[in-house]
Amino acid sequence: MPEAFDYDVAIVGGGPAGSSTALHLVRHEGVRPHRIVVLDKAKFPRDKPCAGAVSQLGLDVLSAIGVDVAVPCVTMEGVRVLQGETVGETVDRMGIVIRRTEFDAHLLETARCDGVHVKDGEGLSAIDRCEGRRKGFVLTTTLGAKVRARFVAAADGAGSTTRKLLGIREPDRKGHLYVLDTERVAFDAAIGRGLVDFDLTVLEDGVEGYYWDFPTMLDGAVQVSRGIYHANLTRPDAATIQGSVKDVLGRALARRGIDIAKVKLRPFSTRPFVPRSTGWVKGVLLVGEAYGIDQTTGEGIAQAIEMGRFAASHLAVAFRTDNPRFDAYEREVRTSTTGRHLLQSAWMARRVYGRIGHPARRFLLRSAGARAAAIRWYRGESLSMSTQLRLGLGLAASVFA
């Protein structure tokens, strides 16, 4: 008797979240690769505007299933936090910076070589639920093809077409970023040491976030990824940004001797992971930025890779039981170290970037212990109760400093 569906799962989105889901299904869950299809509207390699920081968490998750990051990269050797003339520096490895164009293509090609059916250049245009004895989906691609799948993994990022077609509401305001690449300038001495800069000076202009300088590999040389992240926590009618976010970025670049008119800016948005985020609807689970990313940093590559591992585990159960509910997936994400960090980040964003955030920022600038803990947290590690207690006491002292 022929199988009722073309695939057990259709993964919409071929970025790190989608590729990780496919790779974990094959390599960890033992799912037959020809029962998996990945759809993506872009043809890989694709351009992706992103600073490309991957914390150690993401590297460890990939390593556990035998996937090497075989693309040019720069190791993040530590961090500098800046505000005005004040600089707090801590040296401790955090992860790597990659080019998303190369990294995403490598992961998707690895899944393809494993036997997964990859349809890049063929996105999603419609999704309909099947009626009858066996429930599932018919996905219509942008090329007009029909794909029948028992389950769907939505891994299609901040602009998730799957979310829109299924009517899944946005849980919170999206963040906004601009990113650009340049050669190193005199200001970039720390870049030569592999350090990444988070400059909080832009908060003085009303941006709810930070400006960054990250080392990155471009054309075989270490250059600089620069940009600005605005978490967009405040409604427009209450905003106090001095000009647009782009204007604030221009002033930050000018302090580094860079003319914004002479560089190419690439804007994009981010969807934050917050308590109201939706992780699934019947027969569909959301992975990576389609679910949500870190609201404090605006980053999510490592978290997307980790979510792909969780998604694969719960999809494998769904294949065996034919159960379209994924509440256990949502519960595992939220209670994992990664999920707890994402929820903590949503809580912290308003307390670091808002008007009440001066003590937290002062503490981070002045305390090497706070920065060291922040690096461990960034790497995806749990913080001990004693560390949390010290941080709480230090923050309290900073309030009255």
- Backbone structural class: alpha/beta
Order of helices and strands: EHEEHEEHEEEEHEEEEHEEEHHHHHH
Query: Which range best describes the helical content: under 10%, 10-25%, 25-40%, 40-55%, 55-70% or over 70%?
Result: 25-40%
Which quaternary structure do these chains form? single chain
Low-confidence stretches: none
Strand composition percent? 25-35%
Instruction: Give the overall shape.
Output: globular
Q: Quickly count the helices.
A: 11
Number of strands: 16
CA gyration radius, whole angstroms: 21 Å
Instruction: Please tell me the CATH architecture of the largest domain by its name.
Output: 3-Layer(bba) Sandwich
Mean pLDDT comes to 93
Task: Give a structural overview.
With 401 residues, the chain is an alpha/beta fold. The chain folds into three domains: 7-70 and 99-171 and 272-342, FAD/NAD(P)-binding domain, CATH 3.50.50; 74-94 and 173-270, D-Amino Acid Oxidase, Chain A, domain 2; 357-399, no CATH class. Helix content is 33%, strand content 27%. The protein has eleven helices and 16 strands. It has helices at residues 16-27, 56-64, 100-113, 161-166, 245-254, 301-321, 327-335, 337-353, 358-366, 368-378, 385-399, and strands at residues 7-12, 36-40, 53-55, 73-83, 86-98, 117-120, 124-130, 136-141, 146-154, 175-182, 195-199, 209-218, 221-230, 266-270, 280-281, 284-286. Strand 4 and strand 5 (86-98) form a beta hairpin. Helix 1 crosses helix 6 (301-321). The protein starts with 6 loop residues before the first strand and ends with a helix.
